[in-house]
């Protein structure tokens, strides 16, 4: 299965309302930035990372795919997944400028495309190629109702609708106001509206410092918070370890962590309880597998962050024994030949061969930007 073509792409797909905000970002579009890799047996693999649709930065990713990694891949055998990952990830001149950041997420898109190719060549959905589904059902938790930009009354309506109409039993709402007591008030209102049986996680997207996070946790402890996600700066292992030791609320993080080694450092420091790798930020499925196994060996749950908006993670989550639930944000699903689907609060298991990443022609026609 010799690689014969490498075509980068950039899609900017509108989110389902004019814009959304968390504590740190306001976005109008999701960037689907990646590569279509062709082989001499006529198959095409698709892989991508997720961005905030900032075109100039998206072009750094596609330039890296095309100009830096492309020549290393052309003519190679796409079956040699681990060998190619090592060749690309450890290429001295590329690793010199980035063991994380642009070069790492560019590699992520390539690695996903290569897995998509191998699954298609095997005529199997990715979860089956990896070793089969270890869960009969995969629960979905809804993040799309809980943006910080949603006012309190709409937040409550959205949470109730997600439960009563759509069947979700798990929600996540954003926090991270400068005064964390505003977040307590919103959480209390949602808890009161949905009752005690729905789990509610919260996500601060890296906003607070340690004393603010501690003050928040002291007030939030009696409210049954399922997890507190990214309370503080993404790289600050020590502060997360201190917080985790000082509160009974479980700490979740990982969506901004680039490498398996950094995940290990967080876990070794007991700074995280819900491990949240993102296949679009670690260097693809190959590195995601390492992170997931490493967490599972410590008996920590793995709940992926959906930078891919779930297309690949639904496979990884059905497969991995440490995973029983997955985030749900349905912004880009209609761009794919086999879109993610949630019914009654559970993800439907995908069945088509591949990694779930094949784009439709109409998505490419509607949302493409010049690379
Ligand atoms: C907006 N999920 C998240 C959105 C979301 C972010 O930046 O991407 O809030 O991915 O934190 O857990
Ligand atoms: Mg998050």
TrEMBL record:
Keyword Magnesium attributed: yes
Gene Ontology MF term list: hydro-lyase activity; magnesium ion binding
GO biological process, one term: carbohydrate catabolic process
PROSITE patterns referenced in this protein's UniProt entry, alphabetically: MR_MLE_1
Domain Mandelate racemase/muconate lactonizing enzyme C-terminal: 152-250
Organism encoding this protein: Devosia epidermidihirudinis
Protein name per UniProt: Mandelate racemase
Pfam families linked to this entry: MR_MLE_C, MR_MLE_N
């Amino acid at each position: 299965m010799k690689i014969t073509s490498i075509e980068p792409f950039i899609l900017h797909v509108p989110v389902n309302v004019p814009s959304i905000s968390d504590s740190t970002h306001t976005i109008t579009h999701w960037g689907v930035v990646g590569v279509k890799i062709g082989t001499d047996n006529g198959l095409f693999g698709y892989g991508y990372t997720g961005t905030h649709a900032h075109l100039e930065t998206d072009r750094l990713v596609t330039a890296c795919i095309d100009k830096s990694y492309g020549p290393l891949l052309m003519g190679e055998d796409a079956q040699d997944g681990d060998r190619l990952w090592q060749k690309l990830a450890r290429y001295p001149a590329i690793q010199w400028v980035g063991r994380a950041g642009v070069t790492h997420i560019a590699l992520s898109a390539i690695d996903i495309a290569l897995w998509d190719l191998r699954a298609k060549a095997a005529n199997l959905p990715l979860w089956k190629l990896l070793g089969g589904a270890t869960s009969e059902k995969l629960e979905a938790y809804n993040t799309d109702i809980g943006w910080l930009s949603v006012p309190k009354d709409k937040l409550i309506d959205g949470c109730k609708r997600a439960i009563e109409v759509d069947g979700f039993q798990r929600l996540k709402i954003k926090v991270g106001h400068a005064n964390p007591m505003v977040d307590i008030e919103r959480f209390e209102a949602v808890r009161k509206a949905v009752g005690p049986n729905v789990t509610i996680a919260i996500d601060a997207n890296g906003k607070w410092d340690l004393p603010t996070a501690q003050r928040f946790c002291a007030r939030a402890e009696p409210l049954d918070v399922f997890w507190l996600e990214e309370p503080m700066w993404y790289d600050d292992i020590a502060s997360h370890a201190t917080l985790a030791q000082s509160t009974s609320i479980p700490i979740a993080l990982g969506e901004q962590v680039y490498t398996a080694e950094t995940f290990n450092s967080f876990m070794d420091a007991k700074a995280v309880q819900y491990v949240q790798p993102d296949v679009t930020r670690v260097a693809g499925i190959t590195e995601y597998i390492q992170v997931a196994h490493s967490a599972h060996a410590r008996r920590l749950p793995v709940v992926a962050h959906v930078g891919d908006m779930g297309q690949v993670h639904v496979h990884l989550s059905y497969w991995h024994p440490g995973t029983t639930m997955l985030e749900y944000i349905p912004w880009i699903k209609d761009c794919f030949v086999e879109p993610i689907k949630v019914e009654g609060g559970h993800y439907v298991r995908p069945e088509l061969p591949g990694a779930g990443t094949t784009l439709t022609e109409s998505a490419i026609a509607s949302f493409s930007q010049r690379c």
